[in-house]
Backbone:
């Protein structure tokens, strides 16, 4: 996130502080708030975890088995990740991540394994509740 009002000098010994020699309108200086990053990451983690649980319930109730259940999970996971990217981040991924080289594909695949475990748990639970009992 670029903050021209911060007036920080990254070459200063402390990495910050006022720099009266540089123009404060220089857009090459960036300020990154680690607390905001952690808060945003926790919110995305909660949304994706809830999506894994909800999509597992949907797949179990609909009776999806095998690859159709896996396809359901992958479609819903990428849909939710794209919704986060579009509505909350305005497709400006580099403004919300630490590494400026992160791609949209890596963002979409983040937390895939953790969400898949929640998905499988609720998928088998609801499939068993609806079709076996």
Residues:
């Amino acid at each position: 996130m670029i903050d021209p009002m911060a007036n920080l000098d990254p070459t200063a010994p402390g990495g910050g502080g006022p720099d009266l020699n540089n123009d404060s309108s220089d857009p090459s200086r960036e300020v990154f708030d680690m607390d905001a990053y952690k808060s945003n990451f926790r919110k995305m983690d909660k949304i994706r975890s809830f999506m894994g649980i909800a999509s597992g319930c949907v797949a179990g109730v609909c009776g999806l088995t095998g690859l159709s259940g896996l396809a359901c999970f992958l479609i819903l996971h990428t849909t939710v990740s794209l919704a986060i990217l579009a509505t909350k981040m305005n497709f400006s991924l580099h403004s919300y991540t630490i590494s400026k080289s992160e791609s949209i594909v890596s963002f979409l695949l983040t937390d895939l394994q953790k969400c898949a475990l929640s998905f499988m748990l609720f998928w088998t639970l609801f499939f068993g509740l609806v079709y076996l009992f």
User: Anything to note?
Assistant: The CA atoms of residues 15 and 83 lie 36 Å apart. Residues 34-132 form one domain. The first helix runs from residue 34 to 62. Confidence is low (pLDDT under 50) at residues 15-20.
